Amino acid sequence: MSVVVSVEDVGVCRKQLKIEVPGPAVEAEVQRVAQEYRKAARLPGFRKGKVPLGVVQKRFQEEIRKEVIDRLVPRYWHQAEAESGLDILMPPSVEQVDFEDGANLTFDAVVEVKPEIALGDIESFDLPEMETEPTEEELDSAIEDLRRSVAEWKDADRPAARGDLVAGTVQVELEAEEGQAEPTPQPFSIEVGDPNVWEELSLAVTGQKAGTEATFERQAEPEGPRLEHRVQIEAVRERDLPELDDAFAAKVGEFETVDALREALAERLRAAKGQERRRSRERAVLDQLRERHPLDLPSGVVDRETENILRSYAEDLAHRGIDPEKADIDWRQLFDQTRPQGEKEVHGRLLLDAVVEKLAVVVSEDEFETSLAALAKVQGKSTPAVRQALDRAGRLGELRTQLGRDKALKRLMGEEEPEEASESAEDE
Hints:
alpha+beta, Chitinase A, domain 3, 4 domains, 50% helix
C-alpha cells in the first residue's frame, strides 16, 4: 500500500509530498511507546511499572504523541522517498503534521529535486593549450628561489633595497591628550617588497640605512583617517646566497650534482604546469557546459553549497590563527557575494550527473578502492578506518558519485576512453 497521497510542484525544483501513515501502524506505535513510558513511570500511589496504561496515556499524552511522531515520520519518509521515484537532492522539510488519537498520521514533506536536463552538445569543447615543459628561465628562477630560501642573512652597509631584511620599530604619531601615554613603538622585521607587508612600510624603508628614520602615512580603514607612522631603522641585512655547486645540490636534496637537482626541479615544474593545464581545461569544459545548458537551480542546494564554501573559508582563517567570530567580516554580505560561486558549483555538478547518466559512466570497484586508499594515505589512516568513517557519516555514496563526475569530466576532455572501448582493449 502506497503511503504517498499526492505530489505537487511548489516552486522551482521543489515538490511537496503528502504522506499518510496507516492507522493500524500509528496505533501499534502509540501502544509501544505507551508501554515504554509505563515501565519507567513513577506516579504517586503506584509502584514503578504498575501504573495503569490508561493513566499513563492520559498523564503523558503530549510526550507520547511527540515520540510517536519522531519515530514514524522518518520511517515513513524513507518509504515515501523510495515510492516516489524522485531524484531528491536534500533531506525534506517536514510540515503540517496531523495526528489525532485513533486516526491516520499525515504530514507534508517539501524536497528539492534535480531539474530535468536535456543535454545538447557534449562533444566539442574549445580547450586551452598550455605548455607543460618548463623553460630555461623558469628553471633558473626556481633554482634562485631555492638558493634564496636557504641563504643566511648578513649585515649590509648600504641603503635597503627590495629583497633585503629590515628590522626596527614603528610608532603611530598621535597628539597625546593630557595624561595619556604616547603609543608604544612596535618592533618589526620585514622583507622589503613582501606582498604580505604594508606597501607604505616597504616604500618608507627603501633607500634607508641602519640608524636612520623615516615616516609614512597609512589609512587603516576605508573610511578612517590617514595616520602618520614613524620608523626607526635598526638593521639592514642582505642574503648571503650559497654557491650553486654540487655541495649546494647535496645540501638541499641529497642530489649528487647540480644537473641532478636541475632535472628534479624540472620534473616538479612539469607536474605543477600539468596540474594547472588540467585545471584550466576542466574550468573551460564546465564553463562551456553551463553556457550551453542554462538551468533553474534548486535554491536550497545553492544555499547549502554557499554555506559550505564559507565554512571552508572560516576554517582556513582559524588555521591561520584568526578567530572567524571576532574577525571584522560581514558574513551576510559575504554570503551574498559568494552565492554566484555556489550557483556555478551546483550547476556544474548537476550537468556532470546528467553526463554520467547519458554516457553510462561506471565507477569500478577497483577504482573505488584505489580512491579510498589514496584518501586514507592523505589522512594518515588505514583504508578500512576511512571507509568506516565515511559509512558512519553516510558519505560513501557521495564519494562514488564524485568519482563518476570526475570520470565524466575526463571523458568530455578526451582523456578517457568510453567504457566499451576500455573493455575491448582489455580483452585483446
